[in-house]
Amino acid sequence: MLNLALTHTIPTPEGPRPLQVELTQAPGERLALYGPSGVGKTTLLRLIAGLARPDQGRIAFGDTVWCDTERRVHVPARERRVGYVFQDYALFPNMRVRDNLAFAQPHPDRNRLDELLALTRLAPLADRYPQQLSGGQRQRVALARALAQEPQLLLMDEPLSALDPALRVALREEIDDILRKVALTTVIVSHDLGDVFRLAQRVAVLEPGKVAALGTPRDVLLPPTPSGRHALSGIVLAIDPADVLWRVTVAIGNDTLATLSADVEHLRVGAPVAVQLNGSSAVLQPV
Amino acid sequence: MIALQAADIQPFWLTLKLATITTLVLIVLAIPLARWLAFGRSPLRPIIETLCNLPLVLPPTVLGFYLLVSFSPVSFTGRWLQDVLGLKLVFTFSGLVIGSVIFSLPFMLQPLVAAFRQLPSNLIDAARTLGKTEATILARVILPNARAGLLSGTVLAFAHTVGEFGVVLMLGGGVTGDTQVASIALYRKVEALDYAGAHSYALVLVSFAFVVLLLLRLIQSRSETRPC
To answer: Which parts of the chain span the membrane according to its record (chain A) (predicted)?
Structure first.
């Protein structure tokens, strides 16, 4: 069980801002830290891993206190047995895939290593160097390496953010599968709702300075009642005259939508726009 | 006709011995120092780094002069070195090694620090979360991924020691067989108006410098094509 109660200063472009967090995670639970960038999600992971020290507070895992600023306790990262999957993977470029995993093992165990390579479908790539792998393959190596150290807690920082959308969906399912099999207490940092709903059982929504909500993704992140008006956000691609009106084309995700608008004075090509769908018509609002 | 007699080969052997010992001492010394400069947090780092880099801009005779003064048995430090540690460093080979280590330090240190600083900090953090000690991280992660820097530093420090003149003349005095390295032997030949003898030393030193720089270029182009 992971217990966090801490205050830490987060450096932001607008200057340092204190973040206050109180969280408890049940054993075996998968918890997502969800929120906009710059809110302190990665910093929180680094504090849990022992790569940084909180300004004030306490971090405990089970019966072990990892950090207590009042009692001046700080267990170094290397003694915490925390598997950390870095956003940029941080694979050792001088080691082949197999050696990256072997280096992580607390005791050499060839069978376990082969099991992990099979679990993450890396066996055919075991003799390659990280720079010879694609983004998705590197991500799987990073996860396999974190598992190779037999961690008691797994931390994943934006595990899929560096991948293109199609690959992200496939790998998300694969990671979900692997996490189910290993059944580890896991903290996943993401700003992607797909990750949160697919990978996590509970979510902590971080807002500047605090945890704004904590619960299951459905309870916390789904709107309470269906609304007749739906707003999407997009990017204006083109504004063309169409008789007395204007034809505006907007990119929403990977799709485009063309609609008619009477007022395009505040719209600019390349600028974000809110698209409110109302029956058959759309209202465009610059944001 | 340029020909080296048996007695003339001796300064080359001495030069190679000095350069090899200096380089070995520098490898042992510079790795922990570079690690501290690249990853440490002490506010003293810029001052220490500047001190280490001073030989890059100082005339070698300045350094040689200060070392001569501080190692001289009439000075306090020289007397202490001789009485307490039994070290006689003026006009001796051991003195030359110490002078060369100080003088060639930046040539080993700079490529190492640059290579260490280029490593993504997440690599070191990842090794820490994997339970590795700082010594293991240095040996298995930092050094193998900074090996182009280590190689460049080793080659440069060795070559620079071979090319030393001011420090070795000041501190070593050019004692034949003991501290007279190739660059000083060349100088002595010119003083004695033996231009053919001087030429043979100069030609070997030029060829050596060319081979070293070519080697360095090859190391650099290899590390550019292979990032690991």
So the answer is: none
